Amino acid sequence: MATSGFCLLVHGGAGRRPPEERVAGREGCASAAQRAAAEVLARGGSALDAVQLAVELLEDDPVFNAGTGGSLTEDGTLELDASIMSGVDLRAGAVCSLTPHRHPIAIARAVLEDGRHVLYAGAGAVAFAKRAGYVPVPPESMITPGAREQLARWLAARAPASGGGTVGAVARDRQGRLAAATSTGGITGKRPGRVGDSPVIGAGTYADDLRGAASATGVGEGILRINLCARVVAGIAAGASAQEASCEGLTALGERIGVDAGLIALAPDGRLGWARSTESMAWAAVWEGGEADGC
Amino acid sequence: MATSGFCLLVHGGAGRRPPEERVAGREGCASAAQRAAAEVLARGGSALDAVQLAVELLEDDPVFNAGTGGSLTEDGTLELDASIMSGVDLRAGAVCSLTPHRHPIAIARAVLEDGRHVLYAGAGAVAFAKRAGYVPVPPESMITPGAREQLARWLAARAPASGGGTVGAVARDRQGRLAAATSTGGITGKRPGRVGDSPVIGAGTYADDLRGAASATGVGEGILRINLCARVVAGIAAGASAQEASCEGLTALGERIGVDAGLIALAPDGRLGWARSTESMAWAAVWEGGEADGC
Question: Between chains, do B201 and A225 touch, taking CB under 8 Å as contact?
Fold first, then answer.
């Protein structure tokens, strides 16, 4: 799947999902990837704009655990995490523990463009969003019946919840620029204030034109402790293919931390890779003249 | 400086400081390192306990930008970041945007021991701290005249502030276990909610018994974007000495991001390394039968 043109790869989260949700996840990924490729990359737009649009579309889709439909804290609140990175100059923006806002990834992008800081948390993230023109939305407009049911099941069983449904995208545009973005509601039943890997540059998201790009999903506590995306990108830089580096990253995560995850990756030449140690991970890819999806 | 026994290396922040503050920083580092080595490592205690105690002592010392004496936000508030990691099993704990609590690193350690999550932000960090038995203290008990003066100067000039004075420690105990810890008030004049590298595992702090340990200080926005500590530890794992890997990390940070920093590092065999691209960085090392310090 090497290409001298553009390419875009999105994921809809690694985890264990019933068959009908898997299909919906695959379809949602394919739709977001096709639209971002058509509206941005095929018109000569930037990888950064493409990953932002793809993730915004996935945030709007209640099938995924990001934006609308995001997983709830043990208190029943929605706290959102997102990050985005430009491979051109390693600029990055991220927010964590953000109260309901429709597109957390757009606020992360505003952090990147503002340039003063990289990561804002909690009330400070809300204040930054407001300053940048993003207004909070009523929580009930983003909290879905499905998210409430998942929390009820978690509260009843107190079983470890999966991070299933986090969304992410990596892209290369026709100018060879790379970008990556990730957005999530975190894990169902998380304590308020818990921050996972998704808003952390190098853990959930990474992009460097010279070395590669990646977006991860899975048990955030584990991914954080091993800097999964930075590790995969370093593997690509050291000569592994995006596919090999992705598999090696998940092997290291399993062996050293003992948790499962999934990820998508992209080498500077546009070769794609994806891997999961979970039961499923929805994904979709679009490149100059072709597309593919799976779960 | 290789050793089969224990060793402990602390830093008191990279930046530009007047000569009298440099001396105070070096003395504070030496005092904290000596006490943590004597009270923990020389008695057969763990590297994890040693880095926690060293950082608690530095948090109490108003000379440093961590705990008491931490840098203030543009609103004049104190928001604290800290993280700690055990190299044995890669367990980690961190807090960010924490309101005034005497020892943020102790709360990060409680996060590590609790084990449910790795990183808590803002109000959620305060709630976790309360649950773990840590009570907030009056802000005025931790906000120093020096921190207020720095903020006043920053507000007057709006010049980019340095991250000078962040504190950190890396240690190896007699059983060969590694640990790392970092604590900071961030940069003077930061926006509320801004999170730097210090509470991010892989950026400001990393420890892995099999690969090495590191703690960083400097412009957090840059360190975050390059995962400095994970990168240095990967360099050690790939065969570089702790010293070479530290220098390579700072070179990459300068070349790709264009900012300055400092860091301390430790190889699994106990060999130490430290480097800075800033004008000064207070540090002190104590090992079985010897000690050194500088700035």
Answer: yes
Closest CB from A128, A193, A227 relative to B121: A193
d(CA B213, CA A254) in angstroms, rounded, equals: 21
Q: Report the gap between the CA of A197 and the closest CA in chain B (Å).
A: 9
How do residues B274-295 score in pLDDT, each as one tens digit?
999 998 999 999 999 999 999 8
A116 vs B191, B192, B227: nearest CB: B191
Question: What pLDDT score was predicted for residue B131?
Answer: 97
Mean pLDDT score of chain B: 95
Query: Tens digits of per-residue pLDDT, A141-158?
Result: 999 999 999 999 999 987
For residue range B75-98, list pLDDT tens digits in order: 999 999 999 999 999 999 999 999
pLDDT in tens, B216-255: 999 999 999 999 999 999 999 999 999 999 999 999 999 9
* Contact residues, A window 122-141, toward B, CB-based 8 Å cutoff: 122-128
Domains of chain A (ranges; CATH) run 7-294 (3.60.20.30)
